[in-house]
Amino acid sequence: MIALPLFGFFALLTVGSALIVSFSRSIVYSGFALLGTFFGAAGFYLFLSSDFVAVTQVLIYVGGVLVLILFAIMLTNKIEDATTSNPSLNRIAGAVLTFVLFLFLVGILSGTDWVVQDEEKFASMVTPIGNALLSSYLLPFEVISIALLAALLGAVVLVRREVR
Amino acid sequence: MPTINHYLMVTALVFCLGLYNVVTRKSAVGLLIGVELILNAAAVNFVAFAHFNGNDVAGSIFAIFIIVLAAAEAVVALAIVVAIFQQYHDIDTTKATLLKG
Fold first, then answer.
1. What is the ipTM metric for this complex?
2. What are the structural domains of chain A?
3. What residues in A contact B33, CB-CB < 8 Å?
4. 3-state DSSP call for residue B27?
5. CB pair distance less than 8 Å for A125 and B60
6. I need a labelling partner for A90 at 20 to 30 A (CA). Which of A101, A118, B11, B31 fits?
7. How far away is chain B from the Cα of A164, in angstroms, using its nearest Cα?
8. Predicted TM-score of the model (pTM)
């Protein structure tokens, strides 16, 4: 069975990159380590037989959001002090809080008996997603297009210089 | 094959690391990176639950909505960060205190 080692590889990629993102002292390293987390999540989507979401993840997150974040880092941070460009505060309190939350989540996850009906389907999800988006989920689909338009205009209005 | 608990453990870990990022970072872009980690973990959880529930299509739909809304959120938030940088020449969240009484 190759599935479990492959899953372990994606899990290591995701968690390892997330560790670098959270604990790196340089924001440039944090931004680039985000790449591994996004690709690991795309691998998870493939494992979960949602090929369309995996491609969307790579296109939008890696191609869009990550490039945007790197642009923002380059535009705003003083890159020359790259070793301490991502300072943290309240490290110990934050670590304790999130560790307690993690233990809490693990306790819930391992204590719950999930109802699983796994049918091992790996058919393409593109046609069902298209049908669902234009039938049951038509209103959210249209609302989200308006939200995207508003975000686009809002970003332009926020960063432009005043023209008088 | 990995069971649902494998996915939930990994996403719980990524969620907690993102939360740690949000709680501790001083840089505004660092905070945003943490929010992206949290949203990613949530989207993977949606798809995992739907997959182990008879490969339901709703999980994929919600993951797509989460991805799109995360992109919109990143655009607006980074625009705000750039505007703050133009005002203060710094993106330290402890220094943007104009609205503080």
1. 0.89
2. 3-103 (1.20.120.1200)
3. 21, 30-31, 34, 69
4. strand
5. yes
6. B11
7. 18
8. 0.89
